Amino acid sequence: MQRTPHHRSRSRRNGLAAALGVGALTVSLLGGGDVASARTDPEPPSTTLSLPSPPGGQNVKVLVFHASATAESPTVDAGIAAIETIGRTGPDAGRFTTEATDDSAVFTDGAKLGKYNAVVFLTGGGDVLDPEQEAGLESYLEAGGGFVGIHDAARTEPYSDWFTGLIGARPAAAPSTVQRAVVEVGDRRHPATASLPLQWKRPDAWFNWAVNPSGSVHTVARVKESSYKPAVGANGWDHPVSWCRDYDGGRSFYTGMGGTVDSFAETDFRDHLRGALAWTTRLSRADCKATINANYTAERVTRPTQPGQNDQIGEPHGLVTAPDGRVLYIGRGGADSSQPVVTDWNNPDIGKGRGEIHVYDPKTRKVTLAGALTVFGNKGGGDELIKVEEGLLGIELDPGFMTNGWVYLHYTPHAQINRDTHMAERRVSRFTLDLAADKLDLASEKVLLKWPVQIHSCCHAGGGMAWDSKENLYIATGDNNSSGFSGGYSGNNPQPNFKGVSFADARRTAGNTNNLNGKILRIHPEDDGTYTLPAGNLFTGTEQDEGGGKTRGEIYVMGVRNPARIFVDKSTDILYAGWVGPDAGAPSTTWGPAKYDTFSAITTAGNHGWPYCMGNKQPYRDRNLPDPGKPLGWYNCDAPKNESPNNDGLVNLPPVTSNTIWYSPQGGGVDYPRDANGIPSYKTEEQKILMPWLKGGGQATMNGPVYRYDPASTSKDKWPSYWDGKWFVGDFYDGDQPRHAVLTDPKTVGKGGIPVHAESLKKIIPVGTDGIRNLMDWKFAPDGSLYVLDYGRGFFTSDSKSALWHVTYKGGEPTPSADKLARKAAR
Predict the structure, then answer these.
(1) 240 preceded by cis ω (within 30°)?
(2) Model confidence at 30: pLDDT above 80
(3) What is the pTM of this model?
(4) FRET label pair with 532: which of 85, 201, 479, 796, CA 20 to 30 Å apart?
(5) What's the pLDDT at 16?
């Protein structure tokens, strides 16, 4: 019989609580007082439960409740037996004892209910509790109890809003048929998932959710919809299957798995339940708040800059955090729209801009303009006379910064431009910052490295820098190539040139072993302002081909297009980089893939393809003189040749290494069937999307950091350990493009393996008009909080929306608190 829905208010529940027969008790909790509550009404219940005592208590107990208003699930006996076995065996035998019942009256017997550390709902669905019994369950959670729901428990108490909150989500309909699928295990810390495979392959009956709970619960595992055929109403790439949350004073864990008898015989599934029970019974701590959106605060810390002054921020182009928490960030060189723009190459001030260095001090919450370089960087240069990507491009601090004040800047000095040949000089220089006054000594410059760049035709300057654990400095450079003259496909047109210098052929730069553009360089700066070359770069600089030296020993990675942001994880020395792709909106069976913006986790020196191949070694067609409009053969990604007339390096190039992430307007990780020669079909109707969690359109990669959690830090703002080891990847734009934390498989990282898990950050690092709309750079501070640069709302200018943001975590410590853990049952 269908019951009347029972949506109770707090005052109604207090009256019902007397039916529990507990009497007025002094509450002795295992630790409910510090647990976040899902309620806002502060009124306490008139009577409460007394749960098993704090440390020193014995006999940890679990109640398995298996009533059903419909047909009882056939999994009940198997589930009870599995939970009993978990309590008796395993790495910590005797963790708890189990009792099972289908008598819902247990929830109105306060004296009995209060003996259990956790309640497991192994129910078959339907309305199984009357109002008084549900009030008893609510009081139990309020007193600090634990709850575990398994599979059909999500269909229990369908009329109760409170129970919906306890579970976290409701099924949209019946589950799928039993199918084998891949479960992505994203939480590598929670006891329910820490021991599981990154990609867990198992059969089950998979629910779709009426409302996706992501962001309101902490998801520990997702099911990969592309690995099975979901029922109607699929959730898409973000399909939670197991999650947890601190709820109404207690702890709730739910898994949508366990829909088959055989599930409970699986070792991994039992380990999953073992960890869930450990947390809900207070046998162990766990963080079930790390991905709940409300636990993060994003604050703009710079004020709108004054017109014409750039007192707070310039045209944002990069940031770095100092060991003492200060943030140094740079402005590329574009002035605000009120400033005049010089477009006449005969004018000595053509393209002249100010590359500004600002310092934000979180202790005083004030900004200081540390200094400014005169750069070629204001819009007005280039063949289009409307934009320039040169200027102040990158910043890094010396590993000994707090002692020596050394700051490394990657920039294009205006004084070195040639207005006749339209050539300039790019350089990496070291300056000294007065650490007390936050002022840069411009006279202290020591030029480490310099090389020529063409400035006749915009674009692709790159600019990012990073250090590894051996104090090697990585420098990202763009391919210094026009975006035009190739229809948005491979930038390999040899024909256009200005006074003999090609500006549309990236084989001159990124594909050239003897050119520093379109590369990630690696050098070891020395104290005297020189540098040495570390072992293990792509070339030694002494390679011979056709009678001459044709390589540069500074090159670590070649074949990149426009890598504005790079990061080195000093825990592993893996280099993480992202670069912007070309402009073709769709693939071509004649010329090759559509534009792919790229992220790559790089473990060794190599060739990453541009302008020969992109993505997972998808080739372009060659072209050459006398008719660059005529397609030639497909490039061989395993043995590429540089046969451009503009090449002064090696002809035979290193094989192309596949990248980690690539995306286009068609989607993320676009792939195609290949013919006998390995050439993709490039037919949209035949494409396969390997990474459905991202998509492009207007797109510009902004590579981010890898987070490393510091357990010794006492910061209240630090992001939790859940994010440890995750790589932050984002896009300048805030539409369907990535703003995610991804997890790579250590077995395949750097070898073409794609991410095994992705977590959206779009509500934690908020997008939109009043949010961080145009992400330009992001770095974690030593205290574990995140700083983000928002570019603003106009290109090649400083803007009132340009800002430095600070994103902090406010969720608190894992639960339960360490002094309120239960002790395992005595043997």
Answers:
(1) no
(2) no
(3) 0.93
(4) 479
(5) 30
The confidence band for 93, taking pLDDT boundaries of 50, 70 and 90, is confident
The closest alpha carbon to 787, from 321, 395, 166, belongs to: 321
Superfamily of segment(s) 297-809: TolB, C-terminal domain (2.120.10.30)
Q: Give the residue among 256, 324, 331, 244 at the shortest CA–CA distance from 289.
A: 244
Cα–Cα dist 430/440, whole Å:
11
What are 537's two structure tokens?
A: 């770069």
Residue range 720-748: mean pLDDT, rounded: 95
Q: What is the CA radius of gyration of the chain?
A: 30
Check residue 225 and give left, alpha or beta (phi > 0: left; psi -120 to 50: alpha). alpha
58-62, 594-598, 713-717: lowest mean pLDDT where?
58-62
The CATH code that applies to domain 53-288 is: 3.40.50.880
Cβ distance 761 to 729 under 8 Å?
no
Residue 432: alpha-carbon gap to chain centroid: 33
Phi, psi angles (nearest 5°) of residue 684: -55, -40
Residue with structure tokens 């020193």? Answer: 56
Residue 381: which pLDDT band, with cuts at 50, 70 and 90?
A: low
Q: CATH 2.120.10.30: which residues of the chain?
A: 297-809
CA 817 distance to own-chain centroid:
28
pLDDT in tens, 274-309: 999 999 999 999 999 999 999 999 999 999 888 778
- Rounded Cα distance between 533 and 519, Å, is 15
The rounded distance, in Å, linking the Cα atoms of 294 and 303 is 24
Domain with CATH 3.40.50.880 in the chain: 53-288
Largest Cα separation within the chain, whole Å, is 96
What confidence tens digit (pLDDT) does each residue in 433-460 have?
Answer: 999 999 999 999 999 999 999 999 999 9
Tokens for 371, please give them: 């200094």
pLDDT band at 6 (very low <50, low <70, confident <90, very high): very low
* Mean pLDDT, rounded, of the chain: 90
**3 state DSSP class of 88:** helix
Got the DSSP string for 110-132?
A: HHHHTT-SEEEE---SB----HH
DSSP for 447-514 reads EEEEEEEE-SS----EEEEEE-TT-PEEEEE-----S-SSTTS-SB----EETTEESSBTTTTTT-TT
Return the pLDDT at 822.
Answer: 85
458 CB neighbour count, 10 Å cutoff: 25
Q: How many CA atoms lie within 13 A of 361 on its CB side?
A: 11
Of 507, 672, 506, 677, residue with least CA distance to 587: 672
Query: Which residue type is seen at 111?
Result: A
Is residue 67 scored above 60 in pLDDT?
A: yes
Residue 409 has pLDDT above 70, yes or no: yes
- Give the CA count within 13 Å in the CB-facing half-sphere of 334: 23
Supply 711's token pair.
């357990």
CA 645 to chain centre: 41
Which amino acid does the sequence have at 768? G
Q: Which two tokens stand for residue 51?
A: 């749960």
